[in-house]
Amino acid sequence: MDPITMNLNVDKLIRSALEEDISSEDVTTNSVMPVKTQGTVDLIVKQDGILCGMDVFERVFKLLDPETEVIRKKNDGDEVKPGDLAAVVNGDIRVLLSGERTALNYLQRMSGIATYTHEVASLLTGTKTRLLDTRKTSPNNRIFEKYSVRVGGGYNHRYNLSDGVLLKDNHIGAAGGVAQAVKMARDYAPFVRKIEVEVENLDMVKEAVEAGADIIMLDNMSHDEMKEAIEIIAGRAQTECSGNVTRENIAKILDLGVDFVSSGALTHSAPIMDLSLKHLRPIE
């Protein structure tokens, strides 16, 4: 992550995570390590995957003590395997112990998302279809999770509700129909924003095309319905497939030739990647 993003958006979130874990003191560490003692610890990879979140991992320790040193052996986007040494962390042993869990929580979660995204994105190799994430992120962790998708080879859909117009079923219901919803969005939203419409059947597809939608999201439609929908759209709008798309079933849509496929599973269902801080020892 770039320094501006870290300073403006990330530091406050990491501080909040640290405050959650250390409300007054780390009583265990203070019991066994009452005074400052320099030490070192190894960051060890325990399973295959794509490493992601090293800037955040390091920042956890730096916020506790700016003098902490993280010597990286691996970087974001690197493919790693069990036994790999990803980094060595040097500093006050009290900082290494107190920051360990928070630092690993970020790194394991972010690496897990990058790994899962990489696996799904690899299934789209050779097609024009781009893999997108969604807003189905854990609260206050979106900046970390969407970054991890990019590291894994995916692309970000809109970051938040201010980013773009996506007219879903309830928006359409509130507006009184697809055509009316698109017209109202076109009148309200700045011209630089595209208008995307979520559709659930072929009638809605036709309405969205006629209304001039820029992107049409085919949501939870059967393969045959999506194929017919793409024929109806006929290149007049970009197409997106969505709805319970996972690593296990994404192959079923490869022949459709949609522009995008979005998957909430990238962020809400990716398992963590196992990493550990091991071999803590004092530095003489």
Strand content: 15-25%
What is the arithmetic mean of pLDDT?
95
Distance between the termini: 34 Å
What is the N-to-C order of secondary-structure elements (H for helix, E for strand)? HHEEHEEEHEHEHHEHEHEEHE
Rg on CA atoms, Å: 23 Å
- Overall geometry comes to elongated
Strand order of the largest sheet: 6-11-10-9-8-7
- Structural class determined from secondary elements: alpha/beta
Helix content, binned percent: 40-55%
The total of helices stands at 10
Low-confidence sequence ranges: none
Number of E-state strands: 12
Characterize the main sheet.
Answer: 6 strands, parallel
Notes on the protein architecture:
The protein is of the alpha/beta class and 284 residues long. Helix 8 links the parallel strand 8 and strand 9. It has helices at residues 3-21, 27-32, 54-64, 93-122, 142-151, 169-175, 178-188, 202-211, 223-233, 265-268; strands spanning 38-45, 49-50, 69-72, 79-80, 85-92, 130-132, 165-167, 195-199, 215-219, 238-242, 260-262, 275-282. The model has no long low-confidence stretch (mean pLDDT 95). It contains ten helices and twelve strands. The strands form three sheets. A six-stranded parallel sheet has the order 6-11-10-9-8-7. A four-stranded antiparallel sheet has the order 3-5-1-12, covered by helices on one side. The chain has a two-stranded antiparallel sheet with strand order 2-4. The protein starts with a helix and ends with a strand. The radius of gyration is 23 Å and the shape is elongated.
